[in-house]
From TrEMBL:
Molecular functions (GO terms): endopeptidase activity; metallopeptidase activity
Keyword Protease: yes
Gene Ontology biological-process annotations: CAAX-box protein maturation
Name this polypeptide is given: CPBP family intramembrane metalloprotease
Tagged with keyword Transmembrane helix: yes
Pfam (any one): Rce1-like
Length: 257
């Protein structure tokens, strides 16, 4: 009878497993045993090696993105429309290239199965209201702290269809390629090496940092957290793309007005 109880104790169930040290049953996702305190290895050695490869790939994607953003932000020589065009294309290519690395897995994020126009419209309306609140908040902070307002329209002056260009480069391209890069590739990769909440928070923080605006962190992080939750809940990038587009479009309209 005793031996039967012991053997029953070490049998793993769907939501439990045995401690690698003392064989006490613990939850599958436990990192440490509650009985003996031994650290649990949640993955096999080959999976750990694969996770390390995924982390290195993610670091490369982020490093390229950060270098491009820093070059375009901090060097006066790059503050022209021609360089804006170059850096926008470089960021788009970088995001698309890494997204396509795992195309077989990622292509499902672009499907329109169960896509709802009503839901997309709701996300768009929420984005526009959020953008209005952010615009007045950031304008007040810039005037209060720096005694100036930020304006990017000067980069487009002198170009034909300047209004269309500013919408394309600040609303269309970021909405599409930042979502492919950060909520498509990066978040998807982090979900393979961390739990859901960790992946969401890490991707949101990294997204906020690349904008290189300390004063904007108060809205960039919640913005990224919200889109990441939407991407996971809806299992598609399109609602996030809609939200991102209408948010940036509203900001563009303030620039033009």
């Amino acid at each position: 009878m005793v031996s039967e109880e012991i053997s029953a104790e070490v049998i793993e169930s769907a939501d439990q497993k045995n401690c690698i040290s003392c064989n006490v049953l613990i939850a599958v996702d436990c990192r440490f045993c509650g009985s003996c305190g031994a650290k649990q290895y949640l993955t096999e050695p080959d999976k750990i090696g694969n996770q390390w490869l995924l982390l290195k790939q993610s670091a490369l994607f982020y490093a390229i993105t950060l270098i491009i953003c820093c070059a375009s932000k901090f060097f006066d020589v790059f503050q022209t429309f021609s360089w804006l065009l170059f850096f926008s294309i470089a960021l788009a290519v970088n995001s698309l290239a890494f997204f396509l690395i795992y195309w077989k897995e990622n292509k499902k994020l672009l499907n329109f199965i169960n896509f709802s126009i009503q839901k997309a419209s709701l996300y768009g309306a929420m984005a526009m209201m959020g953008a209005i609140l952010v615009h007045y908040s950031v304008s007040w902070l810039n005037l209060t702290i720096f005694s100036r307002e930020e304006n990017y329209y000067y980069l487009f002056k002198g170009n034909f269809f300047a209004e269309l260009l500013i919408v394309f480069f600040t609303a269309v391209m970021p909405a599409l390629f930042e979502e492919l890069g950060f909520r498509g590739y990066l978040l998807g990769t982090l979900l393979k090496v961390a739990d859901k909440e960790q992946a969401i928070y890490i991707s949101a923080f990294l997204f906020a940092i690349i904008h290189l605006s300390f004063i904007s962190l108060f809205w960039l992080i919640p913005f990224a957290l919200f889109i990441a939750h939407v991407r996971i809940r809806e299992n598609t990038l399109w609602y996030g793309i809609f939200f991102h587009f209408f948010f940036n479009l509203t900001a563009c309209l303030f620039e033009l007005l």
